């Protein structure tokens, strides 16, 4: 931008409206104006934010492309605000809003008259746009030289189709509907529903159709004798729509969705589908739009539906709804036993459930079908699994609030899914199998009987958006369950958002699986990053897209490497760690006092920010709380981590206190990432719970947009946790309020004072945690680590400082004694010697016995020799 | 672990037990019992090799070299010296064919040739120098090989036979640090047998080897 000429128009838009932005740019350039837009002028690899800021400040006018998505976008607001502040009254016409989808402008934009392109055909829209911009700014002083393009983009790139509703250019090619629709049949071949193809291996239908066809659903095309197998289904029961992954079906014809006209009511629609008699087309009219509410796994949901005038046959459920004017597919017919009226699901709702459809539609109109097919992977991301299945690899990806702004296509969930559905998947599976294949779950007879090789159905992949997680208590319980149950978890910690850190704390405290923590937002591995204290030791991954990428996405390769390495290490090290906390909070020592509760009279732990700006708050709260407790005859010492006079590692002291202190207070003020991580740990493990606080000044700062990225989750968390709110320097009651809650907790019956998530954690772990290793395995592992029986024969590396004779002899002796103990346990306790020769216990008894006897024979001690003889004679 | 790996491990564990039992019986002067134990171990290896051969299972050069090396050691223990030499030479072929770091069979074949009196030290000079050069090169280039106690013992042996006292001392001192606590004594016992054989066969290098052994004796008998 800095090198180019000043442009007439800077076009500000959000990704959903890219096609509109391109169309506007081309219309303006055809009229002789110069434009700048991200879609046409930002090259891959350039500094996007910097160039957009420059363009926003240097262009003569800014066009804001208004839609509901635009008002959700952080970047959008920062772009139009530049023009607004330079022309607050609008006299200079610097900011020109152009409305392309139905939306009521919000905030400052309400004061601007907008150019309205909604519901217009292309020529009217073009005329209205040019009239609008002509009226607003002065005409450009110079016309661009006709011999050279006005921007770096080629004319071919700037030849878009009009993205509006009446779009003769975009009408589907004349099409025989029977080629793109199919009957959904049951095992007996009876038609139960209808479907249509949107990609070479993907179809859309209704959940009603699939339910009727039961598990053996197939798709049958007219004139094609072989049914098409249904391989996998991703369904949304609330909407009543399902995407179906198909088996091989060469030569399928496909159709594409289009956004519906907002004035769809009264429009004629055609619904081509199937009945028992064969293909048919139901003609109807959209009578009205209605809203339905339901509860899904996360929260209350609602969606708009089109209601049709007349009821088609049940087997038409799943058929496409086609606007007869535009011949576009605008929805899916969904019939239901519970609904009397025939309803169709608009594409706007479908694309909200499967955003990839909308994004691909916007980005690649010409290759839509191919892209949709490419991006409907073998492993489909679901929002949850209903129950932990020991035969599966359970993976969860936790996405940040900032991921929403960056768009799903660059999101961690897509990346993770590509790894788990891609060529690396079998290798990941093999290592996962080695890591947990022999584990016995706590839940009785549940052994992880994993298949020997990878199949798509062996992987359960759930996505937890941080905003979804904190939407309600029920949502948080579900998110926590998934996070705890997952064998493999991937956390997006971009910006170290409070909600994400809390969820990470829960994972860290509860599960020793493989957890990959990744940061995006432009950060790359090796670059400086201001990490929270608790994550300072973490091997942080980066999912920032490569700026100069060609070919395969290197992030997929890197992610696959990390996952493989994680499971590999889990095999090698029984005490594998990729997060802090797990062992520190459990291994407190065998001493009787080591796990004793720290009473309110001893210490009350405060989790809070260490920022200078919080210091005054900390001092006041400590003083007020100590005073309030003293009034209740409790002389307690309120401490932060750094006030604990303990020479052991800070992290050990911290997690020891988080587990043992009966009194714990967490102050959210300043969004200290460490505080929220520790809060997650405390919530997950403590039977005493935690008193949460936040200052009103911080609430006001967040409301004002500082920090910008976490506002929505903060609002949700505020509602969910209801922390004590206090005024920074005036509130004298905060100490009393905290003290009252602490005393309440003290008087609460055992195990009932903790947060409800502690119970969620305990119940989840009872299902998925593995049993403590049996004594033989544990003794053998300890012995092998001290002195491996293959050490001399196969050059197994030695223990540390083995070269010192005293250490060497001690380790050899300790290893031998453990092996002897293991052998006697096998012999006397398990009766392994009397079992069949091919019984694993018998084989372990023979193997351990021989190893022990060999070492005892080498000893000069006569008692050892005698024992060696006894053992060798028994095992031979 | 595959079924094949599991069988190999089972055999080697049983062989180790028999061998240690034989060594123990030997120390107690129960020669017949010792020989029984050694024979039992030898047979385990031979049965395994036969079974592998007849079932068409392929073993890796390092596995074959190990099996023939251990078999050579067992045969030597109960004085089947020519068979032992044959076993070491077979193992040496696999070491060369597989370009293995280990020179266990090669150095033992040299020492056994001296024990038998088949050849004099000067007649074996070329093989000794080759082995020394090969070991030196391997230890310079391969950190994992340098981690192997037996390679340092082999280097000590060939340097000792070359008359390089300081070099042998250096190699044995590393061997002692890396080996299990009982291993240096076994090495020393073998060296004493070699020098006794050199005396017996009036090898002109006998006194030079004896002097070097005396130099490293404190190290190996610690």
Using brief descriptors, characterize the structure shown.
heterodimer; A: 876 residues; alpha/beta; six-stranded antiparallel β-barrel; six-stranded antiparallel beta barrel; 30 helices; 27 strands; B: 222 residues; mainly alpha; 11 helices; 0% strand
Could you characterize the architecture of this molecule?
The complex is a heterodimer of chains A (876) and B (222). Helix content of chain A is 38%, strand content 17%. In chain A, a hairpin with a 7-residue loop joins strand 9 and strand 10. In chain A, helix 10 packs antiparallel against helix 11 and helix 17 packs across helix 21. The N and C termini of chain A lie far apart (83 Å). About 6% of the residues of chain A have low confidence. Chain B contains 11 helices and no strands. Chain B is mainly α and 222 residues long.
| SSE string of chain B | HHHHHHHHHHH
Shape of chain A, please? globular
Please report which band the strand proportion of chain B falls in: under 5%, 5-15%, 15-25%, 25-35%, 35-45% or over 45%. Answer: under 5%
- For this structure, the quaternary state is heterodimer
Strand order of the largest sheet of chain A: 6-7-8-11-10-9
Principal-axis shape of chain B equals globular
Task: Give me the Rg of chain A, rounded.
Answer: 32 Å
Structural class of chain B: mainly alpha
Distance between the termini of chain B: 38 Å
* Binned strand content of chain A: 15-25%
Mind summarizing the main beta sheet of chain B? none
Regions of chain A with pLDDT < 50 over 5+ consecutive residues? 137-159, 164-175, 360-380
Largest sheet report of chain A: 6 strands, antiparallel, barrel
Largest interface chains and counts: A-B, 29 and 27 residues
Computed CA radius of gyration of chain B, to the nearest angstrom: 17 Å
Helix content of chain A: 25-40%
């Amino acid at each position: 931008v800095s090198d180019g000429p000043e442009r007439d128009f800077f076009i500000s838009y959000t990704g959903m409206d890219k096609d509109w932005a391109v169309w506007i740019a081309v219309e303006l350039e055809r009229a002789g104006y110069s434009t700048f837009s991200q879609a046409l002028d930002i090259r891959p690899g350039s500094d996007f934010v910097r160039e957009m800021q420059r363009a926003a400040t240097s262009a003569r006018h800014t066009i804001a492309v208004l839609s509901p998505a635009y008002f959700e976008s952080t970047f959008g607001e920062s772009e139009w605000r530049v023009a607004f502040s330079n022309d607050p009254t609008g006299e200079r016409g610097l900011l020109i809003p152009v409305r392309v989808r139905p939306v009521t402008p919000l905030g400052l934009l309400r004061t601007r008259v907008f150019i309205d392109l909604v519901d217009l055909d292309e020529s009217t829209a073009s005329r209205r746009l040019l009239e609008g911009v002509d009226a607003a700014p002065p005409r450009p002083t110079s016309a661009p030289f006709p011999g050279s393009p006005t921007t770096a983009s080629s004319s071919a790139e700037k030849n878009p189709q009009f993205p509006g509703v009446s779009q003769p250019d975009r009408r589907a090619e004349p099409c025989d509907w029977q080629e793109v629709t199919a009957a959904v049949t049951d095992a007996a071949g009876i038609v139960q529903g209808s479907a249509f193809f949107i990609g070479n291996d993907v179809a859309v239908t209704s959940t009603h159709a699939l339910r009727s066809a039961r598990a053996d659903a197939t798709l049958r095309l007219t004139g094609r004798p072989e049914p098409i197998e249904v391989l996998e289904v991703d369904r949304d029961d609330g909407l009543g729509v399902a995407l179906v992954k198909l088996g091989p079906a060469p030569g399928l014809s496909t159709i594409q969705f289009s956004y519906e006209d907002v004035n769809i009511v009264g429009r004629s629609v055609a619904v081509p589908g199937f009945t028992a008699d064969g293909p048919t087309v139901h003609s109807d009219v959209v009578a009205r739009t209605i809203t339905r509410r339901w509860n899904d796994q996360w929260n209350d949901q609602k969606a708009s539906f089109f209601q049709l005038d007349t009821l088609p046959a049940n087997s038409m459920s799943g058929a496409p709804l086609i606007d007869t004017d535009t011949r576009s597919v605008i929805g899916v017919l969904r019939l239901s036993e519970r609904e009397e009226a025939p309803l169709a699901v608009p594409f706007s709702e479908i694309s909200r459930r499967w955003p990839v459809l909308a994004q691909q539609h916007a980005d690649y109109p010409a290759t839509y079908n191919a892209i949709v097919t490419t991006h409907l992977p073998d492993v489909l991301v679901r929002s949850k699994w209903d129950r932990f299945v020991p035969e599966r690899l359970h993976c969860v990806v936790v996405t940040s609030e900032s991921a929403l702004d960056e768009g799903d296509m660059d999101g961690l969930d897509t990346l993770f899914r590509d790894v788990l559905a891609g060529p690396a998947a079998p290798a990941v599976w093999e290592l996962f199998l080695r890591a947990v294949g022999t584990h016995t779950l706590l839940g009785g007879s549940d052994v992880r009987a994993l298949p020997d090789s990878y199949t798509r159905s062996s992987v359960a992949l759930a996505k937890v958006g941080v905003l979804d997680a904190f939407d309600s208590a029920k949502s948080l319980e579900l998110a926590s369950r998934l996070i705890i149950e997952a064998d493999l978890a991937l956390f997006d910690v971009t910006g170290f958002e409070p909600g994400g850190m809390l969820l990470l704390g829960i994972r860290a405290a509860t599960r020793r699986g493989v957890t990959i923590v990744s940061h995006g937002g432009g950060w790359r591995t090796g670059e400086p990053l201001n990490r929270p204290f608790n994550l300072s030791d973490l091997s942080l991954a980066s999912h920032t897209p490569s700026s100069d990428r060609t070919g395969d996405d290197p992030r997929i390769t890197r992610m696959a490497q990390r996952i493989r390495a994680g499971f590999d290490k889990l095999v090698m090290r029984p005490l594998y760690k990729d997060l802090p906390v797990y062992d520190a909070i459990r291994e407190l020592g065998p001493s009787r006092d080591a796990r004793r509760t720290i009473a309110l009279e001893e210490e009350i732990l405060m989790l809070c920010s260490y920022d200078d700006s919080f210091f005054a708050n900390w001092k006041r709260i400590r003083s007020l709380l100590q005073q309030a407790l003293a009034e209740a005859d409790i002389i307690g010492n309120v401490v932060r981590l750094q006030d604990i006079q303990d020479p052991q590692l800070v992290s050990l002291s911290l997690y020891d206190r988080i587990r043992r202190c009966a009194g714990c207070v967490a102050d959210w003020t300043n969004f200290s990432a460490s505080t929220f991580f520790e809060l997650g740990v405390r919530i997950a493990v403590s039977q005493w719970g935690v008193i949460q606080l936040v200052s009103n000044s911080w609430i006001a700062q967040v409301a004002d947009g500082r920090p910008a990225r976490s506002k929505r989750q903060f609002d949700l968390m505020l509602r969910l946790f209801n922390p004590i709110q206090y005024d920074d320097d005036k509130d004298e009651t905060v100490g009393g309020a905290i003290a009252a809650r602490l005393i309440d907790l003290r008087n609460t019956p055992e195990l009932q004072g903790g947060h409800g998530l502690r119970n969620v954690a305990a119940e989840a772990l009872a299902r998925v945690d593995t049993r403590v290793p049996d004594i033989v395995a544990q003794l053998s592992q300890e012995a092998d680590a001290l002195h491996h029986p293959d050490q001399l024969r196969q050059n197994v590396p030695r223990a540390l400082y083995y070269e010192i004779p005293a250490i060497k002899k001690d380790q050899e002796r300790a290893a031998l004694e453990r092996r002897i103990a293991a052998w006697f346990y096998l012999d006397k306790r398990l009766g392994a010697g009397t079992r069949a020769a091919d019984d694993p216990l018998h084989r372990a008894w023979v193997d351990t016995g021989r190893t022990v006897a060999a070492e005892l024979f080498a000893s000069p001690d006569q008692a050892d020799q005698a024992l060696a003889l006894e053992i060798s004679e028994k095992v031979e | 672990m595959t079924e094949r790996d599991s069988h190999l491990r089972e055999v080697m564990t049983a062989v180790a037990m028999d061998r240690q039992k034989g060594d123990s019986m030997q120390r107690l002067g129960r020669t017949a019992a010792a020989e029984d134990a050694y024979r039992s171990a030898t047979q385990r290896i031979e049965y395994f090799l036969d079974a592998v051969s007849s079932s068409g299972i392929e073993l890796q050069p390092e596995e074959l070299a190990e099996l023939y090396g251990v078999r050579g050691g067992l045969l030597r223990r109960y004085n089947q010296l020519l068979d032992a030499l044959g076993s070491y030479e077979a193992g040496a072929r696999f070491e060369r064919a597989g370009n293995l770091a280990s020179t266990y069979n090669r150095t033992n074949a040299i020492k056994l040739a001296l024990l038998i009196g088949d050849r004099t030290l000067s007649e074996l000079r070329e093989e000794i120098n080759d082995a020394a050069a090969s070991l030196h090169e391997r230890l310079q280039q391969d950190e994992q090989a340098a981690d192997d106690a037996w390679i340092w013992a082999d280097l000590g042996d060939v340097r000792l036979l070359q008359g390089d006292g300081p070099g042998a001392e250096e190699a044995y001192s590393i061997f002692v640090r890396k080996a299990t606590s009982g291993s240096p004594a076994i090495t020393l016992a073998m060296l004493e047998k070699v020098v006794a054989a050199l005396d017996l066969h009036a090898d002109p290098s006998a006194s030079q080897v004896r002097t070097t052994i005396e130099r490293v004796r404190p190290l190996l008998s610690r």
